[in-house]
């Protein structure tokens, strides 16, 4: 028999609605960036906004904001590892 002694954090509907509206605004900003001529910075801007959106989703909808330090560090290590592999892929494509 197991007992659930951990405290659960409940996120209110108002907070989730605010995050959802922020995600919609960031999506609209992404679309607007594609219509402005920024050269190579267009991709950088779109990726920056995508990182912000994924951070919001991870923090609030996946409740990572309320998790312990160990789980947050493990997520950070996994994301850094993913970024390294993606970066190495870009270098491979760049120098072919």
TrEMBL record:
GO terms for cellular component: plasma membrane. Its main location: membrane. It comes from the Bacteria. It is a multi-pass membrane protein. The chain crosses the membrane at residues 12-33, 39-61, 73-95. It holds the Pfam family COX4_pro. Keywords: Cell membrane, Membrane, Transmembrane, Transmembrane helix. It is found in: Cell membrane. This is Cytochrome-c oxidase. It comes from Oryzomonas rubra. The lineage of its organism: Bacteria, Pseudomonadati, Thermodesulfobacteriota, Desulfuromonadia, Geobacterales.
């Amino acid at each position: 028999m197991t007992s659930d002694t951990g405290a659960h954090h409940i996120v209110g509907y108002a907070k989730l609605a605010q995050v959802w509206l922020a995600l919609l605004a960031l999506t609209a900003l992404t679309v607007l960036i594609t219509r402005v001529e920024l050269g190579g910075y267009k991709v950088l801007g779109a990726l920056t906004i995508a990182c912000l959106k994924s951070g919001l989703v991870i923090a609030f909808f996946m409740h990572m904001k309320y998790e312990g330090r160990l789980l947050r560090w493990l997520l950070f290590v996994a994301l850094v590892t993913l970024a390294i592999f993606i970066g190495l892929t870009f270098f491979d494509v760049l120098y072919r």
